[in-house]
Design a protein that fits this description.
By secondary structure, this protein is an all-alpha fold. The protein has one domain. The protein is 96% helix and 0% strand. It has one helix and no strands.
Length: 191
């Protein structure tokens, strides 16, 4: 039922099969070599990727550390600035408080000086008023004394005038009588 195969054909088939096996083995070897090369390349790429990843992680860690250090320095600098600003603010507040206290003290001193000057002026005014009242009282006494002396002088003059008028009236009376007597004597003598 099978065809009788000739030995030459069989030998050709065997050769072809061996050739095909060899080719398949070569292909397998080539594929194995290619696979190994691919695996090697993949391992190399993986190692390079790992190395790059490790380098990138190291760089990122270094960057993170540098950023952390810079952030800490900035934070420290900011805290230092805040403390300096607080200190400057506290110094300014202290200076302003001292200035306010000095101004209050100066104002209080000026107020006391003004009150003292006012009290001195009031006291001087009272003293002057007392002196003026005393002068007025003294002048009033002098005026009353002068008025009293003037009235005495006027009264004295009035008395003297009355006395003189009385004396003159007496003299007139005496002179009239004397004239009348002389006039009578002259009339009598004529007669």
């Amino acid at each position: 039922m099978s065809d009788p195969v000739s030995p030459a054909t069989e030998s050709n088939d065997l050769r072809d099969a061996q050739l095909e096996i060899r080719q398949l083995k070569e292909t397998i070897a080539a594929l194995r070599e290619e696979l190994e090369n691919k695996v090697f390349d993949m391992q190399r790429v993986e190692q390079e990727a790992r190395a790059e990843g490790i380098d990138e992680i190291k760089q990122l860690k270094d960057t993170a550390a540098a950023l952390r250090e810079e952030m800490e320095q900035l934070n420290f600098a900011r805290q230092k600035e805040v403390q300096e600003e607080r200190a400057a603010g506290n110094d300014e507040i202290t200076q302003l408080k001292n200035t306010i206290q000095a101004l209050r003290d100066e104002m209080e001193t000026l107020k006391l000086e003004k009150e003292k000057e006012l009290n001195e002026a009031v006291s001087a005014g009272r003293d002057e008023i007392q002196q003026l009242k005393a002068t007025i009282a003294h002048l009033r006494e002098e005026m009353e004394d002068l008025n009293f002396r003037h009235q005495e002088t006027v009264q004295e003059l009035n008395r003297t005038r009355r006395d003189e008028v009385g004396e003159l009236q007496q003299a007139i009376v005496t002179l009239r009588r004397t004239l009348e007597v002389k006039s009578q004597r002259g009339s009598e003598a004529r007669q």
